[in-house]
Amino acid sequence: MQVSLIPVATAANPDVLHETTTIVFDVLRATSTIVTALASGYRRVYPVADAGTALVMAHKHGFVPAGERGGDKIAGFPHGNSPLEFIGGPNVGISNDAQKCNVLILTTTNGTKAIRWAESAYKVFTGSLLNARAVAQAVLREGLDVSLVCAGTGGRFSLEDTLGAGFVFMEIMKHLNGEDSSRLAAGMAVDDLPIAAYELARFYYHDPLSGLMAGRHGQRLLRRGLEDDLRWCAQLNRYDIAPVLSGEFITTGNDYTKQ
Amino acid sequence: MQVSLIPVATAANPDVLHETTTIVFDVLRATSTIVTALASGYRRVYPVADAGTALVMAHKHGFVPAGERGGDKIAGFPHGNSPLEFIGGPNVGISNDAQKCNVLILTTTNGTKAIRWAESAYKVFTGSLLNARAVAQAVLREGLDVSLVCAGTGGRFSLEDTLGAGFVFMEIMKHLNGEDSSRLAAGMAVDDLPIAAYELARFYYHDPLSGLMAGRHGQRLLRRGLEDDLRWCAQLNRYDIAPVLSGEFITTGNDYTKQ
How far apart are CA B257 and CA B180, in angstroms? Predict the structure, then answer.
């Protein structure tokens, strides 16, 4: 099994994902928000690259639009991109149709674009610190080569996405080596980039929050008073859910969750 | 001051180096070998991308050819790319012209190509663990933005080059912050990639050899019985020399060395 890491999704050619199981990371905050929403009662999340499209879809179907641009909530959107907004689950009281309120339309600066970019993969999961172990186990079940895809920030390398990929790679190694994550399992081929990500994960293992605070984007969110978002996203393995892209939307993928 | 890190030299556009002071890293082993040779009595090292050109130059001028391809010594070359071959200094006994024996023509798979690729920078230094502090101080003296350029291995991300860049970034931070390397100095702008490299350096600070052993290329050298090369290259700040490209060749750059 080969494990590759793509440091900035949209800067690469998506052909590299061909016949691999892919995990997309936008740890601050899209993929952390997706797993939080799915764990809190939302049934589907539509990742949509364009804000206008998101609003049209939401109005047409009665779904809930959410998203940000440059970290700010989009004008006219009831929700931004903070996972904390979705912990309470869908507000079914505001509509007579609970089915529709269960559906989120999410558009973000980097994350939803990266998920759409990854569509050519055999299967696309979304990963974060919150569900590192769950997605590691999900991709191992597929038995294919694995692509860890970091969304990056504005087309540039992102520390927190690489850290997320490192934690998942650590969980893959633990699973294959029985808690000993310090050596590669037999038959595993990796570049140096997953190894560097893994070493970052080891470095921040006992304090993932420091890792999320160390990058530029984390610093920007801190300056906006969003430390609670970082604290939320820094919880390792809170959820046993591997969100998976199924056509146009992301679900818990019943095969992959024990919740 | 902005500090950038280019993870794989030849995969990027060299225009990004414009008006920056640049440090090129091929830690295993070209840039470790260059500083070792200069510290041991060689006066100049010509980095030459092509092996044929290297041999022609060596014969024409009586210089000493050295180099490798894929880690193996090149046929017809008296020296490979191990720093240990040059510790003894130039063998002036084999020639009547000590001046010529003092000059090395070096051609390697990744390192010399990366040095040539970086030529458009304002000034090009070569860095390694052996001289991390020296090159950090040298680039700070220039007062320009800094580009940390990793040679990479076969066009791919290299753990040991990134680690070398991280150690230099650590020394830059120490210098600016007075031994406190844990925060950015005022006016310093960095992407997440130098920060990730810096965290790698912190992780391996007390055991740099483990870092050199963790990457693919280090593993390959170990399999060839070259552990002593890795041990040599893992010595942090052994030399107070900042090799600098001056036209076609690299010298100690008298301005930058106290040896």
Answer: 24
